[in-house]
Structure formats: C-alpha cells, structure tokens
TrEMBL record:
Enzyme Commission (EC) number: 3.5.1.1
One of the protein's GO biological processes: asparagine metabolic process
GO MF terms, alphabetically ordered: asparaginase activity
Species assigned in the record: Streptomyces netropsis (Streptoverticillium netropsis)
Residues noted as binding substrate in the record, renumbered to the chain: 71, 104-105
Organism lineage string: Bacteria, Bacillati, Actinomycetota, Actinomycetes, Kitasatosporales
Active site residues according to the UniProt entry: 30, 104
Domain annotation L-asparaginase N-terminal: ranges: 22-207
Catalysis: reaction(s): L-asparagine + H2O = L-aspartate + NH4(+)
Protein name: asparaginase
UniProt similarity note: Belongs to the asparaginase 1 family.
Domain Asparaginase/glutaminase C-terminal residue range list: 223-334
Pfam families: Asparaginase, Asparaginase_C
Keyword line: Hydrolase
Amino acid sequence: MRHVVAYGSDHLAEERADVEQIVVISTGGTIASRWQGSGFAAEARGGDVVATAVVPEGVSVRVVDLMSVNSARLTTAHQLTLLRTVREVLADPSVGGIVVTHGTDTLEESAFLLDLHHDDPRPVVLTGAQRPLEAPDGDGPRNLHDALLTAASVRDLGVLVVFDGQVHAARGTVKVQTLATDAFADPSGSRVGDVGADGVRIHRRPERPTPLPLPSAAPPLPRVDIVMHHCDADPLFLNAAVEAGAQGIVLVATGAGNATPEISTAIHEAVARGVLVAVTTRVPTGPVAEIYTHGGAVDLAASGAVLTGTLRAGQARIAVLAAALASTDPAERVDALRHVLGTPGAPAPGTRA
Ligand SMILES: NC(=O)C[C@H](N)C(=O)O
C-alpha cells in the first residue's frame, strides 16, 4: 500500500505509506474486562484495549468509547446506538473501516443487526476475547490485530466477525464455545476467510439481502421475546409474552421446527392479535422445515409463524426485531422478516400497495 504524493508548492514528490484509518468502537466485553473482587466485568476504556494489540503496518486507529458493559446486559437501545454510531463514523470518507470490540455473549446479535442495515462497501468487523484484558495468555490482542487487518483489507463483505484467526459473515454465526478461544462458527455454513501470517484470505462472499433503512430509535422500542419448547411445555410462556406486550416472539422449537397442537393454536391467536411469530430450533445445525404436522412446523407455519431457515435463536430474534422496527403494520412486518431471511420472491419492505 505505497504510492507517490506531491507535498507543498515545491511539488516535492515523496513516497509514503498509504495509511488506512480504522475506527475502533469500544463497547466492553471480556476484551475490556478486569477483576472486580468477585468476578470479571467490562471496565476498561477503548484506549486501554487498543493498547494491548499490535496495530498492523499501514493502519492508523481512532477510538470511539461508546460503552463498557458485559454484552449479556445489552439492550435494543444500546444496539441502535451502536448502529447509529457506525453510520456517523462512516459518514467521514477518510475512514477506511470499523472494528467493534464487543462481548462475545451477544456479539452475534449486534453483528447481525448491523449487517441487516449496513449499506457501505467499507467493512464493520466485530471482535472480542474469551480471556480478560490483562490475562498473560489473552486472546484479545491477536483478535484485535486480525480485526484491524481485516477492516483495512476487505470491501463489500458486509459486517464480519473476526475471531481466533477466522473470518465469519455476521449472518449465521453463533458463539459455539463458552470458554475456548475458537468461540465462533457458522454451524450450517462455511466461514468467509482466514487471517494468518500471510494476511487475510477470503474464500467466499456472504449473501446479503438489500440493506434495511436506518430504523427509528424513538421509544417505545418493540418487545421481542424468545420462548423455548421442550417435553411437557404448554403455551403458558408464549401467551405470557403476548400479554406482556410482545410485538414479536421467537419460538425455539424442537427438531426441524416442531411443537404441539396447543402451541400452534396459541401462535394462531398471537398472529391474529398482530404479533410477528418466528420459529427456529434448539438443534445446533441445519434448517427448520415444514415436514411434520400434529403441532409440527407444517402447522406452526399454517398458524402464521415464519420459519427462519438456519438462523439460531439470537439472530432469529434480531430478524424479528428488525422487521418490527421496519414497520408498524403486521403484514409489512411479515414482508420485512421474509426479506431479511432472504426468502425468494419476498417483497421489499414497504412496497405493499
Ligand atoms: N467472552 C466474553 O466477552 C463474555 C462476556 N461475558 C461478554 O461480555 O459477553
């Protein structure tokens, strides 16, 4: 990345490094965690986090200290603040890309929300750590270096997750390890690339639907709940979510998307009240599919639920949330959900007559 530039009135030509400015947005997580006397919690500022990493050659870093929280505590309001901050940062054409340091617990949710709205060729790369800030064998410094390198190197890949030498698309990626450092994978797909001593290697381009417009962050933000099915489950929690005012519900069904006739009836009633209901599965890998009746996915879909393909619970919830933020009309919300799921033939949100 070297080129020739002219400086000042004497037209002195010099060769200088073409520096790529990457903005690091710091949000907390284990990568920013310190011991609190009883356990670890996010505490450090972004500058402290960046100071742990080797900044790749040709990259300059500017830090935005957005928040410092364990990611299990994040709310929709936090995530919309992150989304707006990304937009504001990218409004500066001198910025080459963004790295978001984030707790791993809900990283896949924030990454997917950003990806659904990302309409810029410049990358947004999320990373974090499984070991705390000052751990002698910490994984944060390498992850941050790799994320910076990726953010400075790639274009037109949407929002990415870089972790443990791997580059993942936001969509489909889930946390697959509670403690080990190879924390992320797409169980139903393949990764986008790798980061090694020879740089960033990209193997595939993620499929992404047309990005959604920036949603309003004005309260009240829609409530979207997750309810898990299991042996002996009745519709109590699904109905409780409706009573609590949920505008969207994700049922984490068994197998390929199956529950019971009673839950199918409860979904029918929820949908009749304008609630957007989606179905994913407890199984780690593979799509949900309309195969079984007697309370199976065939019936749940007939009751008005939308099957979410290979998205797991956290990202299925983000898809429902994004659809709920895109419109207040129940039919348009279904369109928006099908659009973000990449359903063939789904009308673009807001195009209904
Ligand atoms: N590894 C981590 O980052 C976990 C941490 N509890 C979080 O903030 O998500």
